[in-house]
Amino acid sequence: MFQLQFLVSTVTLSFITQSYSSMVQLSILQSHYHPKPYFLSISVIGFGAAGGGVEYDTVPIRKAINACSAAVSKYRRQCHVIFPPGKYLTATILLKSGVVLDIHRNATILGGPKLEDYPKEQSRWYVILAEDAVDVGIIGGGEINGQGLKFVQRLDEKKNVMVSWNRTGACLGDECRPRLVGFIRCRNIKVSDVRLIEPAYWCLHLVRSDKTSIRDVTIYGNFNSPNNDGIDIEDSNNTVITRCNINTGDDAICPKSSTGPVYNLSATDCWIRTKSSAIKLGSASFYAFKNFLFDNITIVESHRGLALQIRDGGYVSDMTFSNINISTRYYHPSWWGRAEPIYVTTCPRDASSKAGSISNLRFVNITATSENGIFLSGSGGGVLSNLKFINMNLTYKRWTKFTDGLVDYRPGCQELVKHQTAGFMMEHIDGLVVENVVMKWSNDESMRWNNPLDFRPSTVNNISLLNFYSRSYQQ
Length: 475
Ligand SMILES: *[C@@H]1O[C@H](CO)[C@@H](O)[C@H](O)[C@H]1NC(C)=O
Ligand SMILES: *[C@@H]1O[C@H](CO)[C@@H](O)[C@H](O)[C@H]1NC(C)=O
Ligand SMILES: *[C@@H]1O[C@H](CO)[C@@H](O)[C@H](O)[C@H]1NC(C)=O
Ligand SMILES: *[C@@H]1O[C@H](CO)[C@@H](O)[C@H](O)[C@H]1NC(C)=O
Ligand SMILES: *[C@@H]1O[C@H](CO)[C@@H](O)[C@H](O)[C@H]1NC(C)=O
Ligand SMILES: *[C@@H]1O[C@H](CO)[C@@H](O)[C@H](O)[C@H]1NC(C)=O
Ligand SMILES: *[C@@H]1O[C@H](CO)[C@@H](O)[C@H](O)[C@H]1NC(C)=O
Ligand SMILES: *[C@@H]1O[C@H](CO)[C@@H](O)[C@H](O)[C@H]1NC(C)=O
Ligand SMILES: *[C@@H]1O[C@H](CO)[C@@H](O)[C@H](O)[C@H]1NC(C)=O
Prior knowledge:
Layout: E1 4-7, H1 13-21, E2 26-29, E3 39-43, E4 52-56, H2 58-75, E5 79-83, E6 86-90, E7 93-95, E8 99-103, E9 107-111, E10 126-131, E11 134-139, E12 143-145, E13 152-154, E14 161-162, E15 179-184, E16 187-197, E17 204-207, E18 210-220, E19 231-234, E20 237-242, E21 245-248, E22 253-256, E23 262-274, E24 277-283, E25 289-302, E26 304-310, E27 315-328, E28 340-345, E29 357-370, E30 374-377, E31 384-396, E32 406-408, E33 416-418, E34 422-427, E35 429-442, E36 451-454, E37 460-473
Parallel strand pairs: 1-2, 3-5, 4-6, 5-8, 6-9, 7-10, 8-11, 9-12, 10-15, 11-16, 12-16, 15-17, 16-18, 17-19, 18-20, 18-21, 19-22, 20-23, 21-23, 23-25, 24-26, 25-27, 26-28, 27-29, 28-30, 29-31, 30-34, 31-35, 34-36, 35-37
Antiparallel strand pairs: 1-3, 13-14, 32-33
One 2-acetamido-2-deoxy-beta-D-glucopyranose (NAG) binds near residues 172 and 173.
């Protein structure tokens, strides 16, 4: 028999016990560490979970979730599935409406490393998955670990070679691995105070969801593993991300529009390191991206800082990037990125793609130290319009040995193209303001900077420079 624990303050006890006593054996607790009253809770231990990390605890976890879900329907309040200290190896866990995974600070949920641990459909390969659910969450200070290193076929400092499950025919190449946590068509999602560690593929994925809060989440993925994205916000609205710490191989915060638009996203007070883009819009970009705010973000030693990579005809508007410190450097060119602190492009993916468009971007209070310049490149059918760069300190210097002199249009488009290195490289723009911007150029031997501003009047129109300084300095 499982125990349904009710965590409430003594004041409300009598009212609550009445409604519960007929149903299950209750143990009513005074809560020690849950400040909020009025939710049910059930421990996976009560259903036989061992928490040893060797045997699978899938069945007890699923039973606990089902019991919680039944209690949610019956009593109309949230129910927490508690994971006490321990390691819980599991196949895919399906979250239900009203159910919150409450993972103790010293508890880890370990994703199974085998194909049989995941559902048949590749689109549902997640360690934890919620589909068509409301009021769901993951909290508690604990860890969810995808055992990503078990998916590395060969470690390689340039880029790890990953296991592929394409033998199912579900997917091809090396992008055929399970994601860590997914919310598909969900509403009112709360992910807070958890560590998401070593995903085998993408880490935290929102799909066609609405009203998501992601707070105090730490994401760690192997720096050399491809596709270890941090947070992918796909076709979802009203997402608030704050106080995140992301250190991973692939794109850290990555909105995508594949089957619908992305409206209202904010990411604030974050720290990011990645071998790819720290913030990346796209490259899946068929629909709108609108009304985003990125504020108070530190980006260190990344391959690209703020990137808008619109390839599929979608349009972007009303974005603010403020109070951001960026350091970008070159890494192995098999990774997209060429050390650009800011990268904005609408070049169509291929001949059959429509050109996207980008307008109303504001970059304010940006400090960057980078091995390459800012790249702003619209396309014939998709100009960049009304871009503002205000209060920026840009320091250009080289500190790695990787080759420069390449412009990176990947994926698709013109791929990699030889080109001089510029402070601002601009193509196909209408309306650009640069105000209070200082560029400092390192004066050392390795310096191969060409032009502070690189553009042709035939494709760049209506630019204004106000308080723009360019000067060299001795390292
Ligand atoms: C978690 O484990 C650590 C080390 O074993 C211990 O010091 C700490 O008290 C535990 N924390 C809690 C909240 O139980
Ligand atoms: C994936 O499948 C294709 C075709 O079925 C095969 O050629 C390829 O080697 C497989 N890749 C991996 C990494 O297993
Ligand atoms: C997001 O908002 C847009 C605009 O209102 C809407 O078309 C779209 O369906 C919404 N997406 C979701 C997942 O709610
Ligand atoms: C976006 O946010 C605005 C302002 O809060 C709100 O009015 C609008 O409905 C939101 N859009 C969507 C698609 O939810
Ligand atoms: C900026 O974010 C950091 C956390 O990364 C936080 O400590 C700091 O208080 C934030 N600053 C402001 C002005 O909000
Ligand atoms: C950026 O760097 C400046 C100067 O070092 C510092 O005052 C500011 O707090 C930093 N901001 C962020 C978001 O890291
Ligand atoms: C740029 O540097 C100047 C002089 O050091 C400083 O006053 C200003 O606050 C800096 N601006 C930003 C956005 O970091
Ligand atoms: C930019 O920095 C200045 C000076 O620190 C501050 O007054 C202003 O509010 C900041 N702008 C934004 C959009 O955060
Ligand atoms: C030039 O660009 C600025 C800023 O993007 C815009 O406000 C202005 O209307 C444009 N002027 C013309 C003549 O297009």
